[in-house]
Amino acid sequence: MDRRSNPAPLPTATLSETIAIVCRVIAPNVAKGVIRRRPKIVGVVERFALDAQGVQQLQALSKKYGRGPLMLKVPGKPMAVVLDPADANDVLEHTPEPFATNERLKRSALGHFEPEMALVSSGEAREKRRALNERVLQSSCPRHTLAEAFTRIVEEEAEQLVTRVGTRFDELDWATFHVTWERIVRRIVLGDIARYDRTLTKELAALRKAANWGFMHPKRKRLQQRFERHLAFYYQRAEPNSLMAMLSAQGAENEQAPLQQVPQWLFAFEPAGMAAFRALALLCAHPEFAARAMAEADGTSPPAVDRLTASVLESLRLWPTTPLILRQSTRLTQWKQGTLPAHTSLLIHTPYFHRDERYLHAAHQFTPEMWLTPDGPGQWPLVPFSGGPGICPGRHIVLLVTSRLLAALQRRARWTLQPPEKLNGQVPMPSLLSPFHLRFRREHLQPNSATTA
Question: C-alpha 139: how far from its chain's center?
């Protein structure tokens, strides 16, 4: 936004350009499943490199229109796409006013299983719920109070996973990995007692499947009530060393809707598992970096951002698990190029910024070094966890758990991607890497041998 603004409306894309954005940017991401991924469609998008086409489309529009959000000719509701990195940062930094997180389409989707979650709340209710999330998840602290307990859970589950892989002809696929990941998530969020509670996970999965359709799918109220009663059981138990125990200790008010915050923690962990699985593939394709990362992880005093954490961040940069960040303007805003109407949905396409080779060095290569410097990506909008005041409050826990799981798996075995040529560190990374179609071969480590990926 700029005080020397143009009082005229912002530029508007032509009808054909709007259709191109819908077809190449919005439709593939919606089809993949915004709330719950659809593996077959993810595979199709990967095969035909549709994400790359979306990036190229926005690059062409950026060259034509320059700075400023670009209005789209979408019937029923004003919508704009952000094309400039400074504008993307501006929108994220000015959350929730005048760019709110409770965008209409987002509310319609998340309303299926967490209608009072902070992300889709507004005003004082949002402030209180956001503050509750930040206290429980300790978003301002890089290392959570329960970090050691969470690491212990990861180590225990990794040990059993490697043993399980040994009974499956030494092959690790997504289905096998996902069972372990779900157990880790349930134990961290709900407590050890929830380790085998796949019923709760299936209830949430069914609600998320309906949420993919937003307002076009009727609410499954009975299932939602059953899921909430399920959560209430764990809230009452408040098992030690769990986030649920941390939540219970807060003595939250009714207006903070404490149980309504928990589904988001469970939900957000699933794409984190995808990022970890992709990061394992990246480490397989870059064995020298993997060897340095493991040597560092096994040291006595690892740095604040170690190489395994950087590999997860690179996985999220190359293949964002939140490809579409939505905000909604709460009032008319002034930009140098023109005015943006109130109640406009603003779309930030993260792959466009993460993979823009015009400005980002080695945009299509595995470059974890950028995360190891004090300034990280600097002012460029690399937003694996969104950004600004609306940034994911659980990002530090996610990075802890994913990086420690990578360390635990590599400490116990040597993994090779199958087929090895699926990901080659010498060529640009693909525009999408489906975690559902990754397979790894486990090779036993020799005693006293160096661990590499």
Answer: 16
pLDDT surpasses 50 at 450: no
Quick one: pLDDT at residue 453? Answer: 38
Tell me the C-alpha distance between 302 and 310, whole Å. 13
pTM listed for this prediction:
0.95
By CB atoms closer than 10 A (0-12, 13-18, 19+), residue 272 is: buried
Q: Give the model's pLDDT for residue 217.
A: 96
Of 295, 329, 293, the C-alpha closest to 311 is: 293
Chain segment 69-81, per-residue pLDDT in tens = 999 999 988 999 9
pLDDT score of 238 more than 50: yes
What tokens were used for 115? 């209608």
Mean pLDDT of 441-449: 74
How many angstroms separate the CA atoms of 89 and 273, rounded? 27
Instruction: Answer yes or no: is pLDDT of 99 > 80.
Output: yes
411 closest CA partner among 98, 155, 123, 104: 155
What is the predicted pLDDT for the residue at 451?
42
pLDDT at 395 > cutoff 90:
yes
